Amino acid sequence: MSKLYINKRYFTDKKAKWVSFEDTQDLTETKKDIYGKCVPCITNLYDQLKDGKTAIDLGPAFTCWKVVVVLDSMEECVDLLSELETLLSDDMKVKGRFGSVDETKETKVIVFNVSGESQRKKLSEMLQVCSKRVNPRATITYHRGCAELYHELFGDWKLWKKTSLVKKPEAIQPIIQRIRKVLFWDKET
Questions:
Q1: Where does the source fall among the domains of life (predicted)?
Q2: 189 falls within a domain
Q3: Are 176 and 50 in contact (CB under 8 A)?
Q4: 3-state class (DSSP) for residue 53
Q5: Cα distances (angstroms) measured from residue 93 to each of 35, 102, 105, 137, 139
Q6: Predicted TM-score of the model (pTM)
Q7: Domain that holds residue 24
């Protein structure tokens, strides 16, 4: 049975929008992924959009999976993680975050970062069991890539190809600005 560790911000600052968790005590995998996967993936998208391309090589976003559980509160998110611990085997790696970008929303989500379709399927099945124990009304979905960036540009992830055409050209400039804020803290580049 694996143990899940929650970022200490959850316990010290209940106002945190997002709280990371994973099965490594110091959240080393999450930290490694941010700079080793997420930043290069977002930079890949940013560079292509800045260059005026409309056929975008999705790169790692094409094989990046997110499993999302919608719950009623931060406490339910923690309860779900506790339930999941009882089902996890030591060979299954789990990491992600929970919370909400919009603090005014009544619901909270847990976003699991998953590295492959077989793990996505296995985790989704486990979460169906766990969510029924915590909140039978919980919904579980999954998708490719970061919804905040890719879905607005490319539409339904089920239709994506490794190289996808931008479906909503009017979203390009707002996405470039959003990425600039994340990567460069809104400095002009």
A1: Bacteria
A2: no
A3: yes
A4: coil
A5: 18, 28, 29, 26, 22
A6: 0.85
A7: 5-184
